[in-house]
Amino acid sequence: MQRLQAIEYELRPNGEQQRNMRHFAGSCRVVFNKTLALQKTNHDTGGKFINNVAIMAKHLTAWRNGAPQPSGRTSPWLADTPVHLLQLARQSDSFRYPVPMQIKLKQGNSRIFLPKLSWMRYCNSRSVFGAVRNVTVSLRADKWRISIQTARLTQAWQAAEHSSGMFALQSQNLPGREGGPEHLEADRSRSVERLCKYQWSNCKRPSLCKTRQEITHCGISK
Fold it and tell me: What is the spatial distance between Cα 86 and Cα 77, in angstroms, rounded to a whole number?
């Protein structure tokens, strides 16, 4: 089973990298606003819906080459931003690198390489497992952050249930069992039911136990 996971870190860019990232985020916001203006004009004139991908394919290259915008202005400075970022333009102060081959990660040195930003340090608070799929850079509370999405194959099946405390059941394919997750789901259900019965039988505060029963949906009656 393939597992997708994203982990967020705080970046430690230098002054030039901060200026470039602000430029990239502003360019993406400008392209988003242009695309929204074209959508609105098309809707007001009674035209059919055009998705953003079609608009990007038709207008983005011209805008990067200095063609006039719907407002009549030109924006040749869009060429300073990687085209993949503009194709995934969004309204917030963020941008995404969708091509894994353009991203290089060195966890031992706590550095990551991004196109037109070069190597950049980050707060390596936890390890990254699996192959990097894409990264998203965002600005929040005057801090630049990076979210690294990875993909890896896993064989373990995990489930968690919240009852009176924190009850977690972690299982793997047991020897001599067939069917995998289906049998594990049945084992999990029986374990949760036994836990609920035990909690109810040993409860010294009936009112509190009733509340817990409603939260966990045990359906156990004394």
Answer: 12
Beta strands in the chain (DSSP E): 2-12, 94-97, 104-106, 111-114, 118-122, 131-140, 143-153, 157-162, 166-171
The span from the first CA to the last CA of the chain, in angstroms, equals: 41
pLDDT, one tens digit per residue, over 25-55 is 888 888 888 888 888 888 888 877 777 666 7
Residue ranges per structural domain of the chain: 2-153, 157-216
Report the predicted TM-score, pTM, of the whole model to 2 decimal places.
0.61
Q: What confidence tens digit (pLDDT) does each residue in 162-214 have?
A: 444 444 444 444 444 455 555 666 677 777 777 777 776 766 565 655 555 55
Contacts of 152 (CB under 8 A, 6+ apart): 2, 3, 5, 129, 130, 131
The Cα 67–Cα 76 span in angstroms is: 8
CB-based contact 96:145 (threshold 8 Å): no
Dmax over CA atoms of the chain, in Å, equals: 76
Residue 15 makes CB contacts below 8 A (sequence gap 6+) with none
In the DSSP assignment, the letter for residue 197 is H
Helix axes 52-64, 15-44, angle to 10 degrees: 120
> What residues pair up with 4 in beta bridges, in sequence order?
151
